[in-house]
Amino acid sequence: MAHTDHQTMRRVLRREIAGTIGLLTDEHDFRAMRRYRSFTFDDHTAYLRQVEDLLKTRAAQGSHTTVALFDPQEYAEYCTDAGLDPDIQSSRTRFTAELATTGPTIPYDGQPLADLVPALVDEAVRQATWEYASTLLARLGACASCGEDIGRAAFVRASHLLVRILETAQRGDRHLVCSVTGTPETLLSVLRTEEDTDGATHLDEAEALEFTTVLALGLATQSPGGLVMRTSAPGTPDRIYGWRMRGDGLEPLTAGEVFDAYCTDIASGDLISPESDVDYCAPPDLGDAGQTPGHHH
Question: What's this model's pTM, rounded to 2 decimal places?
Answer without folding.
Answer: 0.74
